[in-house]
Every structure is written in C-alpha cells, then in structure tokens.
C-alpha cells in the first residue's frame, strides 16, 4: 500500500472525517522521483469539536505514528472542526440571476 493511501485509510478510520485531502508534495522537495515523504493534510472532523489545535494535531500524529517514524519526513496539518471549517471556508456570493434577469 502506498504511504498516501495508508495515511488516508488511518485518518478515515480513526477520525471519520467530513472532509479529507491528503496531498503528496514530495515533488516540490529534493527527493527522488516518486517519493512519498512530504504531505499536506486538510482534515475536518467532528472529533475536533471543542479541542485545541495542538490536541487535534496530537490525535493525527498518534494515528500516523508508523509513517512518521519510517517514511514521512514532513507533514503539514490543516485541521478543523466542522464549525471552524465553515468559518474558514470562503463562501461564494449568491447568484443575482445573471443574463436571465436583464431587460432588453
């Protein structure tokens, strides 16, 4: 199993995310082609409700202990509770009707 797939599986099983992105950023670093050593994780989970950012990150680190010990060199975490995610996620404006609402 790839490192990326292992990360996705462990986070899905352990935190039941509403939203999960695991992005391999290894190609942006000085590593051999095809490496899986640098990742960015964007994770929204009910498990993060009411707990500090530090505690959220500790939960992720605990789940990914094996990967961090052996293969992952860098892990950028962007963790959110559902309420903090909706506050951080920019909303698009409401549609005003476009051309259908214009008079000729």
Structure report:
The chain is globular. The mean pLDDT is 89. Helix content is 36%, strand content 19%. The longest helix has 13 residues, at 3-15. It has one domain: GMP Synthetase, Chain A, domain 3. The chain has four helices and three strands. By secondary structure, the protein is α+β, with helices and mostly antiparallel strands. The protein has a three-stranded mixed sheet with strand order 1-2-3.
Tally the helices. Answer: 4
CATH fold name, please? GMP Synthetase, Chain A, domain 3
Number of domains: 1
The major β-sheet equals:
3 strands, mixed
Strand content: 15-25%
Q: CATH-wise, what's the superfamily?
A: BolA-like
Q: What best-fitting shape do the alpha-carbon axes yield?
A: globular
Overall pLDDT confidence: 89
Order of H and E elements: HEEHHEH
Using the 3D structure, state the CATH architecture: 2-Layer Sandwich
What low-confidence regions span 5 or more consecutive residues with pLDDT below 50?
none
Gap from first CA to last CA: 60 Å
Report the CATH C-level class. Alpha Beta
Question: What are the key terms here?
Answer:
about 100 residues, alpha+beta, 3-stranded mixed sheet, 3 strands, globular
Give a quick summary of the entry:
By secondary structure, this protein is an alpha+beta fold.
Summarize the helices and strands and which ones pair or pack.
Elements: H1 3-15, E1 19-24, E2 38-44, H2 53-63, H3 65-70, E3 74-80, H4 82-88
Parallel strand pairs: 2-3
Antiparallel strand pairs: 1-2
